Amino acid sequence: MKIAKSLLSILLLQVGVTQAQDLKLPAREPEVLKTKFQFDYWGKLELSGIVRSRSDKNVFWMQNDSGDQPRVFAIDSLGKFYQSARYRNYEGVTIAGATNVD
C-alpha cells in the first residue's frame, strides 16, 4: 500500500511539473525606470517606510527609525525636504485603512 501511494505521489508530481513547464508567458520588454530626482541628505538615511500624502499628491511622508535617529519627514515630488518631526517611539505610527503593511 505504501509503495502504491508513493508511486501515485510521484506520478502526480510529474504531471504537475510537466504542466508548469508548458506554460508560455507573453514576451514583454523590461520596464525602464527613470530617475525623477536625486537628493543628498546628511546622516545615514535608512528608510523604513514611505507613503504618499493623502492631502497633497506631491508630498511623500518617510520614516527613518534605524541607522541614526528616529524621524518622520516629508519630501515633495522634486526631492525637497520639509521639517522633520522628532519622536521617541514610532511603533504606534499607523495609516488608517492601510492593508498589506509590515
Structure description:
The chain has 102 residues and is of the alpha+beta class. The protein has a domain of 70 residues. The chain is built from one helix and three strands, in the order αβββ. The protein has a three-stranded antiparallel sheet, with no helix packed on it. A hairpin with a 6-residue loop joins strand 1 and strand 2. The model has no long low-confidence stretch (mean pLDDT 71).
Count all strands and give the number: 3
Give the oligomer, counting copies of the same chain as homo and different chains as hetero: single chain
Cα-based radius of gyration, to the nearest Å: 24 Å
Strand content: 15-25%
The side-by-side strand order for the widest beta sheet comes to 1-2-3
Average of the residue pLDDT scores: 71
Number of helices: 1
Give the distance, in angstroms, between the N- and C-terminal Cα atoms.
Answer: 46 Å
Percent range for helical residues? Answer: 10-25%
Spatial shape = elongated
Sheet of most strands:
3 strands, antiparallel
Structural class: alpha+beta
What's the order of the H and E elements? HEEE
Q: Spans of 5+ residues with little confidence (pLDDT < 50)?
A: none
Provide the fold topology.
Elements: H1 2-21, E1 47-52, E2 59-64, E3 71-76
Antiparallel strand pairs: 1-2, 2-3
Q: What is the compact description of this entry?
A:
Helices cover 20% and strands 18% of the residues. The chain is an alpha+beta fold.
